[in-house]
Amino acid sequence: PDLETRVAEHDRLVEAGSAANAAADWDGALTLFDQAYPMLFKTSTLLSALSMRLQRGEAALTAACCRLLLGGEGVLPPEERAVTEASLAQAEEMVARVFAILEAEPNAADLLVPLDRHAALCSRALGASEDGRHGDAFQAYVSAWPLQRQKPGVLVSAASSLVGDGRADLAAALCVQLIDAGVLSAAEEEAAALCLEQA
């Protein structure tokens, strides 16, 4: 297609992507921005797509792309540089928060009877979740995780608690990391994918 046609189609897709973003349809918005980007290779469109990836929990990928944009040969206009730097900071913070959960150390007192303590913490988390205290449930699941690292499903439950607690961004990033790591059983991966949809 000629340039005029590509510009019109690009602008239509970006407008539709912006509407999907406003409706919190991250997947739909991402698809539209991804379709629009190769038509004109506009950095602003790429940044919109990266923003949707970050909303979907793809923090590590977003951070890597932002680093490439900032370190590339082209010169970003000041406004796009500021957006890229802000996205990079947000993505790096999310990655750090996820790894803080994944690399948490157990409470020393819990190490005396780790299996019993793991079960008690998971039971406490389930009770808190049933009572609508999702933040407490998240903390209990995260405390249980270092005691039984061979059971990563507890982190899927922690992510679900984050959704209930209004922290969908961290829930999504945690689910993406768990799915990408390939450590979940089929049932746990299905639960993580469902949590990701809810986030």
> Which residue ranges are poorly predicted, with pLDDT under 50 across at least 5 consecutive positions?
none
Biggest β-sheet: count, sense, barrel? none
Taking all Cα atoms into account, the compactness measure Rg is 20 Å
Helix content: over 70%
User: What class do helices, strands and sheet pairing give?
Assistant: mainly alpha
On the 0 to 100 scale, the average pLDDT is 93
Shape: elongated
Distance between the termini: 38 Å
**Number of E-state strands:** 0
Determine the number of helices (DSSP H or I, runs of at least 4 residues): 10
Order of helices and strands: HHHHHHHHHH
Share in β-strands: under 5%
Task: Write a concise keyword list for the protein shown above.
mainly alpha, elongated, 199 residues
Describe the structure.
The protein is mainly alpha-helical and 199 residues long. The protein is 77% helix and 0% strand. The protein has ten helices and no strands. The longest helix has 25 residues, at 78-102. The mean pLDDT is 93.
Detail the topology: elements first, then pairings.
Blueprint: H1 3-22, H2 26-40, H3 43-55, H4 59-71, H5 78-102, H6 114-130, H7 134-144, H8 153-164, H9 168-181, H10 186-198
Helix pairs in contact: 1-2, 2-3, 3-4, 3-5, 4-5, 5-9, 6-7, 7-8, 8-9, 8-10, 9-10
Care to give the gist of this entry?
With 199 residues, the chain is mostly helical.
